[in-house]
């Protein structure tokens, strides 16, 4: 039997030389894990490299990795560009591989690559052969088969933008996606595992496609369409739970779900909980990200059946009713408070996330502080406050004048600044703030962020007192959250 063709699937560094990233560079992207599993299932020898992880653990140098790729002479190198802060690193890595091994075919794909296909192709001219658009499983499989048979890039392929063509005329063809998503293989974290030991928490995918909510600032609805699906498709509860078991067999007992599972509401989580009981699956910790008001007490009770500890992260974003209305965010603040009560009553630990830099409204910051305190009194733990990263193709960016928003970042090169700015500089100077509003400059938004964080710290004792008797084991995590928020102020003072 002939040896299987090697394909490298790579998470790039933030930049080369590496900078202290302004956003986290250590997570294991589900897209890379899924693509690697799919190629291996279909006869190729896919190998994953999580370069930020490898460099952080000092197990390899960048030169070692470049030389390894060159010596392997793979059929293809696929580099991920899933988020803004990997922009420079993805291109510079491709350039180093091309300089070391001119004949190796290289593509870049991922969410951020899909958003900026033509501009990325121009920025990576000479070192990248194509940009993968949308879901990549079928595109990369078809490309690998073509390269095996023909030895050169195709003239045209769904989901692939060819950099060899004139960028102003080449077409971006929609990807060919896997229709039966339950046929997709389970992924192994060992595919990208770089450090010794077991990951404490794994992220689980429960579906593909567009979120039906159309919040003006959010990319979820937009990306689902760009990635090749015009509506949301869930995996079956049986597939989801079997995948949980597969992850647990890798020694990982804590799972977080950060996709659109919440759209399935009580019915979906109840079906998953029932299937977990049927398969005798019980986690140490289950965490679910959700839009407020997605579950009733019945849904929370189902989630609590899944693990020893269950938690939910609510994207509350703001306490201003007017701002929620402006951004088309379907949240009734009174219902949010009731939702938090129901979660706590069902044994769920609720967390909240907040945004600064949303559209202007009278007393919006004051209303947010007032509402934030109300949620804390009920036991909701504020994880952090972050400035909104406004991205192209969202309604708020495309029709910015309707929202009183003035984008500072518009092109791929603008967002590449996230690859160059350290966390300290981002928090101190606000260079990575993507927009102004009609009434606030980027510095005003930065100061708003600081004031909201300070408000959390000033009232954090409410949370500590709430959970001290109910769940004393949470106190260490509460201290970590508090330290993290305080740390952002120390960075500003240095």
From TrEMBL:
Record-linked SUPFAM superfamilies: Radical SAM enzymes (SSF102114)
Domain of life of the source: Bacteria
Annotated GO MF terms: 4 iron, 4 sulfur cluster binding; catalytic activity; cobalamin binding; metal ion binding
Record keywords, A-Z: Iron, Iron-sulfur, Metal-binding, Methyltransferase, S-adenosyl-L-methionine, Transferase
Cofactor(s), by name: [4Fe-4S] cluster
Domain spans labelled B12-binding: 13-154
Gene3D superfamilies: Cobalamin-binding domain, tm_1862 like domain
Segment forming the signal sequence: none
InterPro entries: BchE-like (IPR051198), Cobalamin-bd (IPR006158), Elp3/MiaA/NifB-like_rSAM (IPR006638), Methyltransferase_Class_B (IPR034466), rSAM (IPR007197), rSAM_horseshoe (IPR023404), rSAM_sf (IPR058240)
Keyword Repressor: no
Name listed for the protein in its UniProt record: B12-binding domain-containing radical SAM protein
Annotated organism of origin: Terasakiella brassicae
